[in-house]
Amino acid sequence: MMAIPPKPWPTGIAEQCEPLVRRVLAPNPSPYTYTGTQTYIVGAGPDVAVIDPGPAEEAHISAILDAVGDATITAIMCTHTHRDHSPAAAPLAEKTGAPVVGCAPLVIETDLPRSDEAFDQTYDPDRVMEDGEQMTGTGWTLTAIHTPGHTSNHICFALEESGALFTGDHVMGWSTSVVIPPDGDMGDYMKSLERLQARDDSIYYSAHGEPITKPKQLVRGMIGHRRQRENQILRLLGEQARPTPDFIPEMYKGLDPKLHKAAEMSVTAHLIDLERRGLVGRSDDIWQTI
Length: 290
What we know:
Layout: E1 14-18, E2 21-25, E3 38-42, E4 47-51, H1 58-68, E5 72-78, H2 89-96, E6 100-102, E7 127-128, E8 134-137, E9 140-146, E10 155-159, E11 164-168, H3 186-197, E12 203-206, H4 215-239, E13 242-243, H5 248-251, H6 260-276, E14 280-283, E15 286-289
Parallel strand pairs: 4-5, 5-6, 6-7, 11-12
Antiparallel strand pairs: 1-2, 2-3, 3-4, 8-9, 9-10, 10-11, 13-15, 14-15
């Protein structure tokens, strides 16, 4: 995880990433969003798509509309429905008449402690995109790539003309993704990483952090990191059975206390995956090897 850089940040400013891609940073920095959520505008002609419109903050919606200018928004596309990604979809659609397309709606009811953004219960897409389905405009084509794991409804969008992939929170430019049960699933997350590893995308644009210019190298490292975490868990359980909180001091030395719950949820996701694979079990809140 990278430290949040000092201000000023380019909040509300349209930055050109490549000929078909601009990004606008939302004013929602936090320990879980880095400097904020990045909304992407795809297209250089009379029509554009908006990816991950972000939080429903008027200043951010106005910044998106200013960046779009005289172009027509023909699609508002969401990678998933955490509240830092999709709430602006509805007001932006109301202002522009553009359809909301992309991931499926999802509402999670849980008493588990949450360390990530809550789910957006207002998200109501006009169309849910199937895996491999495309949205097209003047000079651009976006293909939906289903990547469940961070959330069960997470998808990425591939820009066919340039080889770019919009990765939402599945792969980020500043930190590994948090996988929080019961909706977040580590087994699915690993399969989705392996799916991206098999692709030949040239660059990733994530919702948080800088562009990823060596995507295969990063994804390979992320897969290795998760396998290392699995091995840590199995080693610690080999020493003694323990509840989930007891893993954190050993596995995340020096971690900011504000992030302990996030780490605990990540370890829980690993434990559930290992349990499904028959490698660990539990009695009440105590985990042990089998």
